[in-house]
Structure formats: structure tokens, C-alpha cells
């Protein structure tokens, strides 16, 4: 009897040590549940772990989140709270002189970037291409007239009509345009 009496005494002690939490009034979550969800989310706890901690199935918790009711609101507020805490600490570090944090916050909050704007990059490339084409045209003008005709060495330097040089016949005996 003493052994079974000890077991009963232990089980009563265990029950007393673990208070029963009542999180629902009918189907609605209580304020205690919403406060716990907020606190867990504010400490960076994932939704699956929150579901396990409050004693509901993960699918039930997912349904609550999808309903966009009080549970989803408590979770979003808790999640926003941890974001606020992180940003506050980041700003404190940056204002304390942490160079890396200053750079990161400048990018995150002010939209600063290491890369040039895409529009500037395209404009710079287009200008470089134009400059190269102008240089090529200037080089060609030394060998041709402004009208694009080539100088005829037999005509004593006079310009002749623009012609394409004839191609030598290919080794197969016919060109790709029907043998001309």
C-alpha cells in the first residue's frame, strides 16, 4: 500500500506542479492564449513551435492564421515586435560607430547601393558604344569619301561608285546564291 500510496502522492504532486491552462472559451481563444502567442512570436519562435507550446495541432494553428482573426493578429504583432527590437539594437550599434552597421542601415533604410543605377549604367554603355562608332567612322573616312565611296587608284585619286569586291568562287564550284 505504501508503494501505491507513493504513486498517488507523486501523481497528485505532478498535477499540482503543472497547472492546467485554459485557453478557450468555447471555440474562441482567451486573452491568456493571445498574450502567450504574442510573447512567443516576440521572441522569434516559429509558428510550428508556438502551436506545439500552446498545445494545439499545427494544422489548427495554421487555420487560425488563415482566418486572420485574433490569433493571427497576436502573432503578427509579436513578429513586428521582434523586428522593432532588432532594428532598435541595429540603430544603437550604428550610432555607436559600428561602420558595417552604418552601411547596412544606409542600404536597408535609405535605399543606398554599391551598384550604380541601371539607367546610368545603360547610359554609360551607350555613350561608350557611340564613341567607339565615331572613332570607327573617322577611321573609315580616311579611306573613303564622306559619301562612302572608295577611292579608285586608277582614276588618279577620283572617287568611284561604291562597289563590293567580288568573291572568289568556292571550292565546290558554286556559290550559295545559285552559282553567280
Percent in strands: under 5%
The secondary structure category is mainly alpha
Order of helices and strands: HEEHHHHHH
**Distance from first to last alpha carbon:** 118 Å
- Helicity level: 55-70%
Structure description:
The chain is mainly alpha-helical and 180 residues long. It has two domains: 16-110, no CATH class; 118-151. It is 61% helix and 2% strand. The protein has seven helices and two strands, in the order αββαααααα. The chain has a two-stranded antiparallel ribbon with strand order 1-2. α3 (47-54) crosses α4 and α5 (70-95) packs across α6 (99-110). The longest helix has 26 residues, at 70-95. Mean pLDDT is 74; it is low at 13-20.
List the topology elements.
Blueprint: H1 2-17, E1 24-25, E2 28-29, H2 31-42, H3 47-54, H4 58-67, H5 70-95, H6 99-110, H7 118-143
Antiparallel strand pairs: 1-2
Helix pairs in contact: 2-5, 3-4, 4-5, 5-6
Amino acid at each position: 500500500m505504501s508503494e501505491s500510496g507513493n504513486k498517488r502522492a507523486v501523481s497528485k504532486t505532478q498535477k499540482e506542479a503543472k497547472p492546467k491552462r485554459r485557453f478557450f472559451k468555447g471555440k474562441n481563444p482567451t486573452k491568456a492564449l493571445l498574450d502567450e502567442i504574442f510573447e512567443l512570436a516576440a521572441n522569434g519562435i516559429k509558428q510550428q513551435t508556438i502551436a506545439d507550446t500552446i498545445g494545439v495541432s499545427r494544422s489548427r494553428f495554421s487555420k487560425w492564421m488563415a482566418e486572420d482573426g485574433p490569433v493571427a493578429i497576436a502573432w503578427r504583432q509579436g513578429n513586428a515586435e521582434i523586428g522593432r527590437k532588432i532594428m532598435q539594437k541595429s540603430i544603437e550599434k550604428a550610432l555607436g560607430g559600428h561602420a558595417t552597421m552604418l552601411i547596412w542601415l544606409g542600404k536597408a533604410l535609405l535605399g543606398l547601393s554599391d551598384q550604380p543605377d541601371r539607367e546610368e549604367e545603360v547610359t554609360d554603355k551607350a555613350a561608350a558604344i557611340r564613341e567607339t562608332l565615331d572613332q570607327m567612322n573617322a577611321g573609315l573616312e580616311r579611306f573613303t569619301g564622306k559619301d562612302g565611296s572608295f577611292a579608285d587608284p586608277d582614276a588618279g585619286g577620283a572617287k568611284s561608285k561604291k562597289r563590293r569586291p567580288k568573291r572568289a568562287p568556292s571550292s565546290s564550284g558554286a556559290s550559295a546564291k545559285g552559282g553567280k
